[in-house]
Amino acid sequence: MPRIALVTCRPAPDISVDRDLPVLVRALEEAGAEAAAVFWDDPDVDWGGFDLAVIRSTWDYSWRAAEFVAWAERCGKATRLANPVEVVRWNTDKRYLGELAAAGVPVVPTRYIGPGDPAGLPDDHEYVIKPTSGAGARFAARYTPDEHDTAVRQLARMHAEGFTAMVQPYMRRIDAGGERALQFFGGRLLHAGRKGAVLAPGTPYDERKVAHPGLEPWTPTPAELSVTERALAAVPDAPELLYARVDLVDGEDGEPRVMELELVEPNLFLWLHPGSVPRVVEAILNAAGEPG
Hints:
- The chain has helices at residues 21-30, 65-78, 85-91, 96-102, 148-160, 174-177, 222-233, 277-289, and strands spanning 3-8, 34-39, 52-57, 80-82, 111-113, 127-131, 141-143, 165-169, 179-185, 188-195, 216-217, 243-250, 256-262.
- By secondary structure, the chain is α+β, with helices and mostly antiparallel strands.
- The strands form three sheets. A five-stranded antiparallel sheet has the order 11-10-9-12-13. Strands 2-1-3-4 form a four-stranded parallel sheet, sandwiched between helices.
- The radius of gyration is 19 Å and the shape is globular.
């Protein structure tokens, strides 16, 4: 009977509830595993007592990114961690988008502004500012050129809290076409979904947003599948990924571009795709049975 930890975080007012977690624990137990939802920062957990630790909903990690990566390193030494610690280390900093772009993957154009760097904000188009370590649109906001002073104040606040900012053009086609999320598990396409735009004009950067508005099932196009495969192939050192989510939006040319590559704690939206639960369980059990 494999022992499996589904790694999550402690409940908090500004943390979403993982609707999939109890469903997945129950499904794993029904399949013959011993499964438990475990807080990543619980000092009393013996990670070596598990055959596999699957990071699921550690949705507070971006507040404590260095601490989280340090935990992943400890956990990865004690048991098999999915995804592996080198993936966690790389993917918790969204500067990976620059690496994907350098590898020829179509991504949303991104510029990074660290503490002390000149702002140089766009003066001819709408743009988005968000942190390189973030989740659920935290500290993200959409600006027009005439909102320059407000945007600069956001940069100052983020830099004071130790964040590097990323600046991207607002991808206008998202208002009509939405953002698509292609989910992979066990090396295969699991399902896909589409959601509406998250950032409404004038929404303060420090206001909590609805992270997945209007989410609905989606059938990926050949172009979306192609970009997704290129993005996953560009992950450094070609690690074995138990799970992955690739978030896509359309550029001005109508072609899909990678908005984010979620390899740490992507919401799987199993509540929207209940038929995917058996495939997730099978892949987790296979991973737990592999030799370390």
